[in-house]
Structures are given as C-alpha cells and as structure tokens.
Amino acid sequence: MERALNLSKVNRVFLEEVKSSHTGRTVPYCYQCGTCSSSCPVAEEMDIKPHEMVEMIKLGLTDALIRCKAIWQCTTCYMCTERCPQEVQLTLIILGLRNIAMREGAVIPEAVKESCKNLYETGRLVTPSRFQRQQREKLKLPEVLQVDTEPIKGMMKKTAVAGILEVK
Ligand code: SF4
Ligand code: SF4
User: Fold this and answer.
1) Which of 23, 87, 88, 136 could in theory staple to 141 by disulfide, Cβ–Cβ 3.0 to 4.6 A?
2) What is the pLDDT of residues 96-138, one digit of tens each?
3) Structurally, how many domains does the chain consist of?
4) Residues 124 and 78 placed together within one structural domain of the fold
5) Does ligand 2 come within 6 angstroms of the Cβ of 91?
6) What lines the ligand 1 site, CB under 6 Å?
7) Whether this model's pTM surpasses 0.90
C-alpha cells in the first residue's frame, strides 16, 4: 500500500542533502542546454527529462521528483554526466533521488522491488532461469555458484530496502 509522504520533511531533507553534497553543489551550474536529455538513451520514455530534473531541484519541486517514474528508468549509463558542459553530476543526483524516494516511502516500481528481493534472497539481482541453467549444462559451463547471502542481508537490513521487503 502507498504510504503518505511527509512533504515538509522530504523537502527539508532533500534540500539539506543537495546543499551539503558535492553532487548537489553542481546543480546551480546547469544552464539548461539540454545536452543531458538529448544524450540520454531512455529520455523519450521518461515522464521528467534529465534537464528538467535539474531545474526542478533548483525550484524545490521535490514531490514530483520523488514520485516520478524517470528516476527508476535511468540506466545509470553516465552519458548525461559525461557530456554535460557544466559537469553537473546528474547520474549521481538521480541515484540520490532514488535513495530519498526509498527512505521516504514513495512508491517503488515492482521491478525494482523484485530485484531487491532477489538480491536479498539469492545474492543476485537476477536469478538464472531453468532454461539458462539447462543451456549452461548443454554448453558444459560450470554451475552458477551459490552466493553467501548473510553479509548481503546484513547490509540490506540496515537500509530502507528492509522496510520495502518487510524484513527485520
Ligand atoms: S547538460 Fe548539464 S548544463 Fe546542460 S541541461 Fe543538462 S545538466 Fe544542465
Ligand atoms: S545516466 Fe540515466 S539520465 Fe543519464 S543519460 Fe544515462 S540513463 Fe539518461
């Protein structure tokens, strides 16, 4: 079930984080040239384009940013960051937005939750399917190794992911 966001808290936390981080301090240098969005392989699918995200941070439009689909559609390819003439750290900014969204209880896409669950339970984001395992056998490839999940579980329990997966 969607949890209600405490926007005044989200805004305060968000702005404090933006101001205090190296990443966030690059935001004011954006002059809206749009290079990031025109370089982004998934911009067409995004509800908020990368250059718009930067402007929205400047305007303090936190709510829409935390709730948008675009922060989860980013593939973290770093193309926007590489090509930005002002060295705005857009990829890291998007990762930061994801962290805040997780922590503050915004709606997380099912696919992301599934990946988190896989990581928690198996130590892998994607678990090999039966077909893939059969193919490996056919090609005489070694079996996929089991991962020791205890350290991963320990780390994940200390993050907001634990709340999403409802593990203690
Ligand atoms: S490429 Fe850099 S300067 Fe240009 S709009 Fe994007 S973030 Fe702003
Ligand atoms: S890092 Fe994300 S926002 Fe930047 S170009 Fe790649 S997909 Fe687009």
Assistant:
1) 136
2) 888 888 888 788 889 888 888 999 999 998 888 899 999 999 9
3) 2
4) no
5) yes
6) 30-36, 51, 54, 84-86, 88, 90
7) no
pLDDT tens digits, one per residue of 149-167: 999 999 998 888 887 777 7
Final residue before a domain boundary, out of 60, 80, 103: 103
Q: Which one is predicted more confidently, 149 or 18?
A: 149
Comparing 8-12, 60-64, 102-106, which segment has the lowest mean pLDDT?
8-12
Contact partners, residue 87, CB within 8 Å, separation at least 6: 26, 29, 81
Residue 119 forms part of a structural domain: yes
Q: Whose CA is nearest to atom 3 of ligand 1?
A: 30
95 lies in the same domain as 129? no
Kind and range of the H or E run holding 97: helix 90-103
Instruction: Select from 115, 119, 98, 116 the least CA-distant residue to 107.
Output: 98
Find out whether the beta carbon of 82 lies less than 6 Å from any atom of ligand 2: no
Domain identity same for 114 and 99 = no
**Domain range enclosing 150:** 110-165
Give yes or no: residues 76 and 121 share one domain: no
> Which residue, chain included where needed, has tokens 């002002």?
86
pLDDT of residue 11: 66
Question: Is the shortest distance between the CB of 80 and ligand 2 below 6 Å?
Answer: yes
CB hemisphere CA count around 168 (13 angstroms): 0
Domain identity same for 160 and 120: yes
